[in-house]
Amino acid sequence: MKKYPFDASLKHHLLVGLALALWIFVFLFFTEPLDVNEFSNREKLIYLPVYGLIGALCYAIMLPLQSYMYKRSEKQWSLKNEVLFNLVFVIFSFILARSYYSFVIVRGEPNPYSLWYYTTGIFIPAILTILPIVLLGRWALGKYKNKRLEDAKIEIQGEGNYESLRLLYNDLICVQSSDNYVEVSFLDNNILKKQLIRNKLSVIETSFPKLLRTHRSFLLNPYHFQSWKTENGKLGVVASNDIFIPISKTYATRVKSAINSTTK
């Protein structure tokens, strides 16, 4: 499934909703559909902002659906997700906008627009102007988030021309020495993965001083500390995904002190 740029932040999407409300008001004020030209400026300022609020409300109400879709897709957002979400948003917006027009704007009027004309002559042209702004805003948020994540990644390099690994620091669980290689255990979309990289553990330790040396063969990211555990009489820690990491006597005091200060 190909990823589509997406930002799951609720706060950012509420800002999209506010921008949508403003854009709808400006669009209606200056294009004057729905016989808006018959309104006085005072009436425009009374009735038109409500359409903007309806748009923002529809978008906000859709956000729990967006969160559900995101979690169901294992926090992977695709073009299919984007199309489906916006389709539901448009349908819901039409229902509320038509209801507002029928029961508030032209309530008691003898000749309101028919459902067909309202749909084809008013709503569809309006949504074709308004929706691209929403799509562009959502896409831009997703691209910006991806850029920030990419900039925040660390790179565990291999010697010479050997491959390296780029990942977020908090996705790195531990590094284990394995002959002339190091085995990196990390999370990729919450799935545990391991990768061998040709390098020395001491080089990794120097490059990333926040990692804790627990053993001559292990480095631990304290962010993933879960609990202490004694196995076969030897002290160790349980990290994310139930990875057991031994602690040698040489490093025990330093590791305990570092983890206790991290988890306070």
What structural keywords apply?
five-stranded antiparallel β-sheet; elongated; 2 domains; OB fold (Dihydrolipoamide Acetyltransferase, E2P); DNA-binding; transmembrane; 264 residues; transmembrane helix
Can you offer a commentary on this structure?
By secondary structure, this protein is α+β, with helices and mostly antiparallel strands. It has two domains: 10-152, no CATH class; 157-262, OB fold (Dihydrolipoamide Acetyltransferase, E2P). Helices cover 53% and strands 20% of the residues. The protein is built from six helices and ten strands. The protein has helices spanning 10-31, 41-72, 79-105, 115-152, 201-207, 249-262, and strands at 153-156, 165-168, 172-178, 181-188, 191-197, 212-215, 218-220, 225-231, 234-239, 243-246. Strands 5-4-3-7-6 form a five-stranded antiparallel beta sheet. Strands 8-9-10 form a three-stranded antiparallel beta sheet, with no helix packed on it. It has a two-stranded antiparallel ribbon with strand order 1-2. α1 (10-31) runs antiparallel to α2 (41-72) and α3 packs across α4 (115-152). The mean pLDDT is 90. The chain crosses the membrane at residues 12-30, 45-62, 83-103, 115-141. Keywords: DNA-binding, Membrane, Transmembrane, Transmembrane helix.
